[in-house]
Write a structure and sequence with these properties.
Layout lengths: L3 H13 L15 H21 L1 H21 L11 H25 L2 H12 L5 H23 L1
Helix pairs in contact: 1-2, 2-5, 2-6, 3-5, 4-5, 4-6
């Protein structure tokens, strides 16, 4: 039988947090390949949206930061915006450690699909092949996480 509820559930979870999206697969009665296909589809849909609209989200965040700073200066306050947050340091370490291909493979997996895709777009959006690397990373990670869930859990 076709388990549309299971497919949609796994794809929905994969759009946000790809790393844990295979866990409900066996409980929903899906086979290994159905789980792989569902989470890969959800991850790629989310990555497509956030990768190709990453510039919009980065511009929006910069505009918001600039507006907050201007409002604080108008009130006579000093707004201390953290530039080197824990997450920023982690992203830079990830970039230095794994390089271009590693970021494309692991950022959407380790961070979350939206944040990871925007990070890849920010660092490597000018290269035409980076989205292809994201998709390959999603496919590999789909198989790995599903394998771990179906064999060890």
């Amino acid at each position: 039988p076709i388990y549309w509820t299971g497919y949609i559930t796994l794809a929905s979870v994969a759009t946000i947090k790809f790393m844990f999206s295979a866990i409900p697969g066996p409980a929903l009665g899906l086979s290994f390949l159905e789980t792989v296909g569902s989470i890969f589809t959800g991850g790629v849909i989310s990555a497509s949206f956030f990768y190709f609209s990453g510039e919009f989200f980065m511009k929006r965040a910069n505009d918001k930061r600039r507006k907050l700073k201007q409002e604080a200066l108008a009130k006579g306050e000093f707004l201390d915006i953290k530039i080197f947050s824990r997450m920023n340091k982690g992203i830079v370490k990830l970039k230095l450690r794994f390089g271009k291909i590693g970021i494309c493979f692991w950022a959407p997996f380790l961070l979350s699909v939206p944040i990871g895709s925007i990070v890849v777009a920010k660092f490597y959006g000018k290269y035409s092949y980076t989205f292809f690397y994201i998709m390959i990373g999603m496919l590999i990670n789909s198989f790995l996480t599903s394998f771990i869930v179906y064999v060890f859990v």
